[in-house]
């Protein structure tokens, strides 16, 4: 694992993340894999065959693919593939969002850390973090540590040894980020790689309705290309989405390094690996990673 100070620099690429995606499109996907590269006069496959293919493809929510997704995000967020070592992680990375912690970077200033501790306390009243709930409510929306210091970091690490807290982190990650991203990806008719591109975007940008939030990134992409669910080409659409994602990252200085797109997601797309099948080789911030 990288040294803590290096990881701090890497994690400074965080952005505000508040949100739940509203999914509006119906799942009427026509996988481009069925006809990509075919002559323009060739008929699109019958919908029944397409529907059978769609039913057979579980996407990023397949357990093996979900594990890959967790490792890919961790390579960018933690400079490590060992995402399960991050339950105890906590620090203020000076990005204006207070403490950043846990497997997905829950922040004291953006609401998702508060939601997490509330869930943990509902499931296990009297836990070591429960006493911080009033303070977390007060600092929400700010970078303040008021009421949290000096023992919050120590108590977070203590809680991270509790399986109930680990499960709460998993569940909030899925509720707020993973499940909405996969649901929208399937509605747009995109495969596993595309669903991951959605997930990574909402992890970094959230979906708070601003110009760089997930929904806004997706709208910029839709203005350039149609997703398979609307009869478009999957590769063309994903390139448009990644272009829009890079634009969003460039709007904030902390996101000026776009390697998690340029030398990771874009690499898989150029290779035509729409199913995100291993082996996978990519780079983030210049560091190389491999999943066999």
TrEMBL record:
A biological-process GO annotation: carbohydrate metabolic process
InterPro entries: Glyco_hydro_46, Glyco_hydro_46_N, Lysozyme-like_dom_sf
Active-site residue list: 77 (proton donor), 95 (nucleophile)
Transmembrane segments: none
GO MF assignments: chitosanase activity
GO cellular component: extracellular region
Identification of the protein by name: Chitosanase
Species, as recorded: Streptomyces atratus
